[in-house]
Amino acid sequence: MNKTSSTIYDYAIIGAGAAGLHLAHAMLAEEWFADKSILVVEKTTKEVDDRTWSFWEKGAGTWDNILTKSWAKGFFYGKDEEIPLALAPYQYKMIRSIDFYQLGKKTIMAAPNMHWQLEEVQSVKRTGAILNIQGQQNTYQAKQIFDSRITQAFINGQKDHISLIQHFKGWIIETKKPVFDPDSFVMMDYRVKKGLATSFTYVLPTSSTRAMVEFTLFDQEVLAASDYDIYLKKYIKEILKIDDYQIVHEEIGTIPMTSFPFHEANEAGILKIGTAGSWVKPSSGYAFKNIEKLAKQVVSNLKNNKPPSTNLLSKQFRFYDALYLDVLARENELGESIFTDMYRHNSIQQIFKFLDEETTVLENFRIFFSFRFAPFLKALWRWIF
């Protein structure tokens, strides 16, 4: 029989992925929340290493104690071009999801004002000022909910918006002989592609004999799992020149790249977070650092008695993202040239600043002038008319 908890939580977080754990951590870091009761409801035990997050930031960061590796230099490769990347004052950082999950779960369970509940949420319903979270076994009550579940509206309404999929498969490989430079990573390498599709490989070496090698596509059709292997094997053999290696771990996944307004599902007392709240950068799929920034903004909003959604999304950068997605959706073969132009004509520091949505309008125009005009002018025309 389903039981209703007698506790009415001040806040409830549905889902303990990147967004849910970032938000819980940001709350715990603020003394203002010390007397607030917080529920985290998660449907899995979070004991599987299911993804790798990579991100850039200046100097020391919150998660440095669980980093797998960081790099201060790297490379971008077009078909016939090698562009070195000296990142300072940034570093490119890699973190395994299992390390993030374990730390987040441990921190939540140790906090006297937080409660971790293993259960899948089926629905959320309002009774007056109280929100009821219906789980498979129990019902929980909260005054404010942060919900990471993607709505059915996205699944039903994708055709009405510009939508691509970032889909990928990665292997962590080990070699008997030292073949990698552990001090340098590959941001993007277009020398092995799937036809004309926007597709590339990136390489994150953690030692001279171990690296993550991942093949990624930005298009509209996910491949069969075995098809990614063709490109991974080709890249390892032809580009890395490695014949003898062992696959010690693999990951496969998808990230929506879309103009769909996830955040419009927000309502009084319920804020959508993570992918479900438009917290993933639509034009790149970068999520980890963006989610951390937005979680801190939510905490600041709550402390200052503002609506939780205040200042979370930039209409200006959402517009830029939509133009880029429009070009890539209609002329996917242009992806390599777009990224090559961007890396050729801009410093990596300026690119990071732009992707972090910290550039001025003038700086944005300088980046736009890196690109060939015609595809973006056509996208702008379609947007206006």
Please describe the topology of this protein.
Blueprint: E1 3-14, H1 18-28, E2 38-42, E3 52-58, E4 69-71, E5 73-78, E6 81-86, E7 90-96, H2 97-110, E8 114-118, E9 121-127, E10 130-135, E11 138-147, H3 152-157, E12 163-175, E13 184-189, E14 198-207, E15 210-219, H4 225-238, E16 245-258, E17 270-272, H5 288-303, H6 315-330, H7 335-345, H8 348-355, H9 361-368, H10 373-384
Parallel strand pairs: 1-2, 1-11, 2-8, 5-13, 11-17
Antiparallel strand pairs: 3-7, 4-7, 5-6, 9-10, 10-11, 12-15, 12-16, 13-14, 14-15
Helix pairs in contact: 1-2, 1-5, 6-10
Task: Please characterize this protein's 3D structure.
The chain is an alpha/beta fold and 385 residues long. The protein folds into three domains: 3-51 and 95-157 and 259-303, 3-Layer(bba) Sandwich (FAD/NAD(P)-binding domain), CATH 3.50.50.60; 163-256, D-Amino Acid Oxidase, subunit A, domain 2 (D-Amino Acid Oxidase, Chain A, domain 2), CATH 3.30.9; 315-384. Helix content is 30%, strand content 34%. It contains ten helices and 17 strands. It has helices at residues 18-28, 97-110, 152-157, 225-238, 288-303, 315-330, 335-345, 348-355, 361-368, 373-384, and strands spanning 3-14, 38-42, 52-58, 69-71, 73-78, 81-86, 90-96, 114-118, 121-127, 130-135, 138-147, 163-175, 184-189, 198-207, 210-219, 245-258, 270-272. The strands form three sheets. Strands 1, 2, 8, 9, 10, 11 and 17 form a seven-stranded mixed beta sheet that branches. Strands 6-5-13-14-15-12-16 form a seven-stranded mixed beta sheet, sandwiched between helices. Strand 5 (73-78) and strand 6 form a beta hairpin. Helix 1 (18-28) packs across helix 2 (97-110), helix 1 (18-28) crosses helix 5 (288-303) and helix 6 (315-330) packs across helix 10. The chain is globular.
